[in-house]
């Protein structure tokens, strides 16, 4: 088998497509940059806010560390704020441990004007043994920058809608 035949076979098996300019790059997808089970200084109700600059990212990182003073500070996530928009999403105050935020499926969809972020609030099982302590789960999510102006966040106790600018 010559090199050209082997290359074509590998492309077909791997599901890749080739254009005249080279391989096509997949569109970036939303992802969790960091999550925390105990965020501090956030509202008691579900909430979300944009992180637009490095100072806000540092502040959000500190909040996501919670109120544990003896814990060493976490490194601030390295995110290109020209390519990504960041959202700090909070589930609000919860009555016990065992709650956690994750991304739903599809995690993020967008058109020219608006976008939607689907989240899932995981709850402890009814028979789970959990600490009777107030918790405040949150997550920092990166979504692709785009031409959308609003983002609707679904999956919390109430739907949230944020304007980007």
Structural class: mainly beta
Distance between the termini: 57 Å
Order of helices and strands: HEEEEHEEEEEE
Query: Which outline best applies?
Result: globular
Task: Please state how the strands of the largest beta sheet are arranged side by side.
Answer: 3-8-5-4
User: Biggest sheet: strands, sense, closure?
Assistant: 4 strands, antiparallel
Strand content: 35-45%
SS field, number of helical segments:
2
The poorly predicted ranges are 3-26
What is the residue-averaged pLDDT?
81
Number of distinct beta strands: 10
**What would you report as the Rg, rounded to the nearest angstrom?**
20 Å
Helix content: 10-25%
- The tally of domains stands at 1
Structural account:
- The protein has 165 residues and is mostly beta strands.
- It has one domain.
- The chain is 14% helix and 35% strand.
- It contains two helices and ten strands; from the N terminus they run H-E-E-E-E-H-E-E-E-E-E-E.
- Strand 6 and strand 7 (114-122) form a beta hairpin.
- The protein is globular.
